[in-house]
Amino acid sequence: MPKRRSAISGERRKRSHREARTNQEHKNPFCADERRHKWGRRRTKIERYRCSGCKKTYSGRTGSAIGRIHRPDLFMVALRDMLGTSAPKSVRMLAKQLDLKKYTVWRWRMLVFSIIGNSSVAASFSGIIEADATYQRESRKGSRE
Q: Count of CB atoms within 10 A of residue 116's CB?
């Protein structure tokens, strides 16, 4: 029996971490009303709320960069692959590993790049930057120069 309780408490901790944003703010992201009531859970176990003022539903992820991701568990695997210590896998290899379309993994990568680009983390990079000359073949076919 103790093992079951520890598993349940672990799931509650995960759930409470996921919902921390909504529980801290207590405001609807649409109309900023504080009157809300629970409105079920998504299949990803995220608690949803319904505003008593405007009748819209929302969760802790609403309005965030990852608010519309349907598979947050796989997104975290892709994020760990991108930001891990080893070299990231190619989009096709990661898509095959996660059993997703390569376009989904590509969109997730672009989302992570946009988050990094918009944050102050990008400004804090420092060190030596190396650049090599790149040669590209040029065709003058059809030009009148």
A: 13
